[in-house]
Amino acid sequence: MFGWYAFVQDAAQHGQQPVFSEFAVELGRDTFENWQSEFLQLLWQVVGLAYFLYVGSPASKENDDRLEAKIDELLKMAGGARADALIEEIDERYLRTRGHAQPHAHPGLKV
Fold first, then answer.
1. Where are any strands of DSSP class E within 1-111?
2. 38 shares its domain with 14
3. 22-38 per-position pLDDT tens digit
4. Which pTM does this prediction carry?
5. Could you give phi then psi for residue 95, rounded to 5 degrees?
6. CA spacing 20 to 30 A to 58: which of 18, 28, 49, 89?
């Protein structure tokens, strides 16, 4: 409604009669540009979030490493003599290639 009033004012300033079909085309163009902008912004946010979740942030990696270190210790406690073999089997099955997890926050701590 306000767009129509602005269109009528613009037409009057140029000494023309407002034509609804021209207004409809202008309204459609403006709406499409707005939706396109919003869609691209949303797409950028989704792709960016997916990328950062795939790469992982240092904080999330620290929590993963800490969890893995705790589980390794629990396996050592419960697994007895077979604990190292269990850990190696799980590491191989899930392709953990960087060795056993070490907490990032405590570099001097041995796990």
1. none
2. yes
3. 888 888 888 888 888 88
4. 0.36
5. 55, 45
6. 89
